[in-house]
TrEMBL record:
It holds the Pfam family PilX_N. The lineage of its organism: Bacteria, Pseudomonadati, Pseudomonadota, Betaproteobacteria, Burkholderiales. This is PilX N-terminal domain-containing pilus assembly protein. Residues 99-202 form the PilX/PilW C-terminal domain. It comes from Janthinobacterium kumbetense. InterPro entries: PilX/PilW_C (IPR025205), PilX_N_dom (IPR025746). Residues 12-57 form the Type 4 fimbrial biogenesis protein PilX N-terminal domain.
Length: 209
C-alpha cells in the first residue's frame, strides 16, 4: 500500500488559519461599528448646531421687531427713535429697558464679549425671546431648542460714509446711531450654543434708504 502522510497536522493548521481569519473579521466589524457610531454622533452634533443656529437667527429677528415694532405688538419701538439714546444704560438697563446697552469704554473690550450670555448674568442683562414682542417659541422637547434664545442691543455711533463726525457727547456721536444686536441660541442640548451678531440702523420716518 502506498504511504500516506498523517492528516492531524493539516487539520491543526487549518484550524489556526480559520481562527486568524475570524479574528480579522471581528476586528473589521468592530472598526466599522466605531466608524458608524462616530458618524452618527457627528450627525447629531451638526443637527443640534443647526437648531441652535436657527434659534439665534430667530432672536436677531425678534430684536429687530423689538426695535421697529409690529402691528399690534409695538415692542419698545418708542425707545429707538433715530438719533435718540433714551432708555440705554450702562449695564444694559433693567425692567422695560432690559438689554439696552451703552457701549463699553474705548479701552475696554466690547460689551458683548465681556457679558456671560448664557450664565447667571444673562437674566439681568439680556432679553429672552419674545419678552417685548409677544413672539412664542416652543422649547425643551424633541428637536427643539432646550430654552429660549436671548439677545442684547448695544448703541453705537454711526457716521454716514463721507460725512464728517460731529460733536461727541458722553462718548456717543449726537447725530445718528446704529444698533449692534448680539444673540445666543441653544440646541436640544443646552451645551450646544451659537452666537450671531448683526448691525441694524433705524431710518427716520420718511427717510430714504
Amino acid at each position: 500500500m502506498p504511504w500516506r502522510p498523517p492528516r492531524a497536522r493539516c487539520g491543526g493548521a487549518t484550524l489556526v488559519y480559520v481562527l486568524c481569519l475570524l479574528v480579522i473579521i471581528l476586528l473589521l466589524g468592530i472598526s466599522a461599528a466605531q466608524m458608524a457610531l462616530q458618524g452618527e454622533k457627528a450627525a447629531r452634533g451638526e443637527r443640534d448646531r443647526q437648531i441652535a443656529f436657527q434659534a439665534a437667527e430667530e432672536a436677531l429677528v425678534d430684536a429687530q421687531n423689538d426695535i421697529e415694532g409690529l402691528p399690534g405688538a409695538p415692542g419698545r419701538s418708542s425707545l429707538f427713535a433715530p438719533g435718540s439714546a433714551a432708555g440705554f444704560a450702562e449695564g444694559c438697563g433693567e425692567g422695560g429697558a432690559l438689554g439696552l446697552c451703552l457701549p463699553a469704554a474705548p479701552e475696554a473690550p466690547a460689551l458683548w464679549l465681556s457679558t456671560d450670555l448664557d450664565g447667571a448674568e444673562a437674566s439681568s442683562r439680556t432679553v429672552p425671546y419674545g419678552q417685548f414682542t409677544g413672539a412664542v417659541m416652543q422649547t425643551g422637547q424633541g428637536f427643539l431648542p432646550s430654552r429660549r434664545p436671548r439677545y442684547l442691543i448695544e448703541l453705537l455711533p454711526f457716521h454716514p460714509p463721507g460725512a464728517q463726525a460731529t460733536t461727541v457727547a458722553g462718548g456717543l456721536a449726537t447725530e445718528s446711531y446704529v444698533y449692534r444686536i448680539t444673540a445666543i441660541g441653544f440646541g436640544a442640548q443646552e451645551s450646544t450654543q451659537v452666537v450671531l451678531q448683526s448691525y441694524y440702523r433705524k431710518q427716520a420716518a420718511g427717510a430714504g434708504p
